Amino acid sequence: MSKDKNPDKFIRFKEDLSKIELPEKFTFPFYYTPHPVAKFAVKQLQFYLKNNKIIKHNFGLESYFKNKKPIGKMFGVLVVKNKVNELGFLAAFSGKIADSNTHQYFVPPVYDMLSNNGFYLEEVDKLKLIIKKINEFEASEDFINAKKEYEKLIVQKDKAIELQRIENTNAKKLRKQKRQEIANLSEIDKTQILQQLSIESQACRYKLKDLIKFWDKKIEPLRLTFKHKVYFKSKLKELRKTHSNYIQEKLFEQYNFINKFKDYKNVKEIFADTFFKIPPAGAGECAAPKLLQYAFLNDLQPIALAEFWWGQSPRDIIRKHNHFYPACRGKCEPILNFMLEGIELEKNPLLENYGKGKKVEILYEEETFAVVLKPYHFLSAPGKHIEDSVWLRMKNHFPAAQGPIIVHRLDMATSGIMLIAKTKEAYKNLQAQFINRSVKKRYTALLNGKIEKETGTINLPLRGDMNDRPRQMVCLKYGKKAATEFKKLKEINGKTLVHFFPITGRTHQLRMHASHPNGLNTPIVGDVLYGTKANRLHLHASYIKFTHPENGTTLEFEYEIDF
Fold first, then answer.
1. What interhelical angle do 141-181 and 187-254 show, nearest 10?
2. Within 13 Å, how many C-alpha atoms sit on residue 269's CB side?
3. Quick one: how many helices (H) and strands (E) in the chain?
4. Within 518-559, where are the H helices?
5. What single DSSP character describes residue 406?
6. Against a cut of 0.85, is the pTM above it?
7. Which of 214, 272, 405, 449 qualifies as a cystine partner to 522, CB 3.0-4.6 A?
8. Buried (b) or exposed (e) across 49-67, using 16+ Cβ within 10 A?
9. Model confidence at 1, in pLDDT bands (50, 70, 90)?
10. Backbone angles phi, psi at 168, to 5 degrees
11. H-helix or E-strand containing 557?
12. Smallest Cα–Cα separation from 99: which of 126, 71, 76, 120?
């Protein structure tokens, strides 16, 4: 008999939802507002998480955990109907919690690599043995001493050769000086001295060659010994790589996904048509694929989906406790596109042109450039699916304009001042000013909370999140420098109005620096990527200062906004 108190994983609602109108179409998983019925499921799951005493996982919310690193997790709910048309929901988590893939309240993983009956743990143990051998070999006295002695002789050789080269150089200078001093001597004396200098020159060359041969001969035995040891280590590392690839390939074969038509594809087949061809690490371990997999395997009808973060935020990406998040694109999009075949989805909001009816206002214009005001929810340049943009509007408004036109960009959600170039020369000049960081900019933002500091500078290097574009992440190792100065203006009904002065211009820089725990830890109001949704992103490019592209005078433009 199963010890699992919920073997079928179908969780019944504790509240009466008979008056709630169910969605006609399934949730578009990559950009959505959770449906009320999904919110009820989330509420019930969160109550379970708050009061659960079985799962011993440190989410960073309780103080009684000791010696365990806090790790927040993404959770998901899938509202479904069972075979008798009863409404309920499934629950899942991404990855593992409490060092396990399986817990009684949640659907199982697509493949449980931590199962004792699987191949994974056994093969990982073999891999650990190889890694142990490498570490032991590198730490052995035999290897360390051989390396030390070999490197010591190399240093001695290089030093001796360098000293000989210096001696030869000085001797060459003396010979050159002697050649200049014999100008008034007889031809016979000149010839004798030049021959002697030639012999000295040749002797210097031989001396250097002999010295190199001497050291090579002295080093050769140690070089061969060390080379053999390095070769042995390289073979161990090659074995490690081969075995690691074998485990990964075999894992790919285990992750077989299903859709409503009962068609199957493994994760490698699914990612074969993507840009990178190879599935990223952790593909299939997210909550959404787990939920749909269980639903289709058990003939449950998907109704609505929602995912939320529970616990402490990671250091690199921004995840806020209790906030809803869409499915990640890097790992989940190819998988969910296959799993959701034949299911009618809600309209993709990312394909909607929010610029309809909005005007790009021209604040200032000269023959070679213009200053315009971009509305919020409007593209700076044409996107993959939507052409309407500042670029298109300006191209139509200035039909004689040449060159790229757009000197710099603002995020689609951001409103404010932009520079437009009408000529190639003006474009090159203005863009060079941005590259050289001589353009001064100021942004006005309304933060969704209070901050203590009045002024300061935020330094958090950023790079794109390859698994969840267009989101950015903080990366101390590979991130590009990103610096922002800020000034607190005033507090408004529990929110804070600030000025941002970007020193660099990275993608989503201000949004990341506002929201990240090591920044202001207070997202901008309406930031759907790093905060919570509102009527708009409350971020506005309010001031710009630059040099006239032709006469070199300083120009300033300001257009504030009342959030």
1. 150
2. 12
3. 10, 17
4. none
5. B
6. no
7. 449
8. beeeeebebbbbeeeeeee
9. very low
10. -65, -40
11. strand 554-558
12. 71
Please state, in angstroms and rounded to a whole number, the distance separating the CA atoms of residues 42 and 59: 17
- Kindly state the tokens that stand for 163: 């000293």
DSSP-derived secondary structure for 129-146: HHHHHHHHHHHSHHHHHH
**Section 379-395 average pLDDT:** 92
Cβ within 8 Å of residue 508, ≥6 positions away: 411, 462, 470, 471, 472, 529, 530
Rounded-to-10 torsion of CA 109, 113, 119, 122? -160
State how far the Cα of 222 lies from the Cα of 350, in Å rounded to an integer.
64
| Confidence at residue 437, expressed as pLDDT on a 0 to 100 scale | 92
What pLDDT sits at residue 2? 39
Percent over 70 (pLDDT), the chain: 98
State the Cα–Cα distance between residues 391 and 373, nearest whole angstrom: 12
SS (H, E, C) 295-359: HHHCCCEEEEEEEEEECCCCCCCCCCCCCECCCCHHHHHHHHHHHCCCCCECCCHHHCCCCCCCC
pLDDT in tens, 500-512: 999 999 999 999 9
* Location of structure tokens 């909005």: 358
CATH topology of domain 351-558: Pseudouridine synthase (3.30.2350)
Residue 174 pLDDT > 80? yes
Active site residues: 411
* Domain positions in the chain: 11-111+255-349, 135-251, 351-558
Q: How far apart are CA 105 and CA 107, in angstroms?
A: 7
- Integer Cα distance of 409 and 418 in angstroms: 7
List C-alpha distances in Å: 90 to 2, 185, 307.
19, 105, 12
Element (H, E) at 228: helix 187-254
Q: List the beta bridge partners of residue 374.
A: 416
Is 402 within 8 Å of 421 (Cβ atoms)? no
How many CB atoms are located within 10 Å of the residue 513 CB?
A: 26
At which residue do the structure tokens 């590009």 appear?
480
Instruction: Compare 187 and 29 and report the one with higher pLDDT.
Output: 29
Residue 5 has pLDDT above 70, yes or no: no
Are the C-beta atoms of residues 132 and 243 closer than 8 Å to each other?
no
The mean pLDDT of the chain is 92
Kindly provide the residue ranges of all beta strands, DSSP E only, lying in 191-315, ordered along the sequence.
Answer: 256-258, 264-266, 301-310
